[in-house]
Amino acid sequence: MKYLKVKDFFNKIAKFYDIMMNEVDYKEWAFYIEEIIKKFSRGNKILDLACGTGNIIEFLKNKNYEIFGLDLSFNMLKLAKRKDIKNLVNGTFFKLPFKDNSFDVVLSTFDSLNNVENLDDLKVVFNEVYRVLKNGGLWTFDLNTIFVFINYWNNYFKIDDLKDLIVIWKSKFIIPNSCLLKIYIFEKIDEDIYKKYDGELLEFSFSLEDVKNALKEVNFKEIKIYEHLSFRKGHEKNYRVQFVAIK
C-alpha cells in the first residue's frame, strides 16, 4: 500500500531529517502559521497533522497554545520528543484518534498533504479534520502545485555535502500530476567509510479548484487560497499555496 511506503520512507530517514532540512526557515514558517491562527481563530487547542520531528510545534509550544502532534512515523516522533514536545501521537490522518469537536485549529505543513494519492483520499482526510474540529474551527494546510513539479522538481538534481553526511536529491515529474523524489544518504562512519541509505517518495498535486471543491463537499466554508508565506491570492503558478477553511 502506498501509504505504508510513506511510513517506511520517513522511518528510514528520520535520524537525518533535521540535518537534511537545515536550510528551511521553520521560524518564518511558524510565524506565518501563527498569523493565520490569529486572523481566523480565537481558540488555543491545536492539532499538527504530520508533525514530523516537531519543528513547527517547537516554535509554538511556549505560546499560549495546547498543541498535539500526530505523525505516521514513530521514528520522527521519537526525535520530536527529544525537543521536549508533549502530546505526540503515532497515527494516520485518514483515521484520527481523537474525539469529535476536539480542536480549535488543525494544521498541516511542508506539503504533507501532497503525500495523499488522489482526491477521494484527500476528502477522507478532510472529513476526519472536519470531525475533530469544533464548530467555527480552522483548518489550514499547504500544497505544492503541479506548476512546481513541472518547472522546478522535474529532472532536479542536488548534492548536499553536510557534516559527516552527503545527501543526493533527485526528482522527476510524472504525468499527469505526480513527482518522484529519490534520496541517497551517505553517513560517514569512519575515515573514508560511509554507510548508504536510500528511499523514494511519490508526491501528488491537484488543481486548486479541485481541492477547493473537495473542501466544499465536506462542508468547509470561507475557503481561501494564499500564495505561501503571504496573504496574497494564490494561483496555479505559485510554487506552493496555503489553504484556509472554516468548519
Overview of the structural elements:
This protein has 247 residues and is an alpha/beta fold. The chain has two domains: 2-144 and 206-246, 3-Layer(aba) Sandwich (Rossmann fold); 148-203, Single Sheet (N-terminal domain of TfIIb). 33% of the residues lie in helices and 36% in strands. A seven-stranded mixed β-sheet has the order 3-2-1-4-5-11-10, with helices on both faces. Strands 6-7-8-9 form a four-stranded antiparallel β-sheet. Helix 3 (55-60) links the parallel strand 1 and strand 2. Helix 1 (2-20) runs parallel beside helix 4 (74-82) and helix 5 (119-132) crosses helix 7. The radius of gyration is 18 Å and the shape is globular.
- Binned, the helix content reads 25-40%
CATH class of the largest domain: Alpha Beta
Biggest sheet record: 7 strands, mixed
**Order of strands side by side in the largest beta sheet?**
3-2-1-4-5-11-10
Instruction: Give the DSSP E fraction (strand runs of 2 or more residues).
Output: 35-45%
Distance between the termini: 31 Å
CATH-level-4 superfamily name of the largest domain: Vaccinia Virus protein VP39
Task: Give the ordered list of helices and strands.
Answer: HHEHEHEEHEHEEEEHEE
Task: Please give the domain count.
Answer: 2
Which residues sit in consecutive blocks of at least 5 with pLDDT less than 50? none
Which architecture of the largest domain per CATH? 3-Layer(aba) Sandwich
Mean pLDDT: 95
The DSSP helix count reads 7
**Count of β-strands:** 11
CATH topology of the largest domain: Rossmann fold
